Amino acid sequence: MAQSSKDGATISDPKYIKLLELQETEKQLDKKIAELNEKFEVVSKTYVAMLNTYNETKDATQTILGALARVENVSVEKLHHDYALPISDSLQ
């Protein structure tokens, strides 16, 4: 006699076999999603930390350029030009 599931389908029933396969695929996909979420969290935290460091460095640089501009009695824009610094954060 063939074994049956709790809903009465036999283990040899193609629909039941397909259901079991889909349930296994779902478990594997759930595991993969969890792994990707963990990786995303690490990458996201790293990116935010790097962005904070960049912003702090940029702020300090602007403070120094402002002080230097006052000492030399020139504009900050002129210092950007003299030191070949970009005027904006644009990557263009």
Query: How many angstroms does the end-to-end distance come to?
Result: 73 Å
Radius of gyration: 31 Å
Low-confidence stretches: none
SSE order: HH
Q: Which percent range describes the beta-strand content?
A: under 5%
Query: How many strand units?
Result: 0
Number of domains: 1
List its traits:
92 residues, mainly alpha, 0% strand, DNA repair
Detailed description of the structure:
It is a single chain. This protein is an all-alpha fold and 92 residues long. The chain has one domain. The chain contains two helices and no strands. Helix 1 packs across helix 2. It starts with 13 loop residues before the first helix and ends in a 10-residue tail after the last helix. The model has no long low-confidence stretch (mean pLDDT 89). Belongs to the SWI5/SAE3 family. Keywords: DNA damage, DNA repair. Component of the swi5-sfr1 complex, a complex required for double-strand break repair via homologous recombination. This is DNA repair protein SWI5 homolog. It holds the Pfam family Swi5.
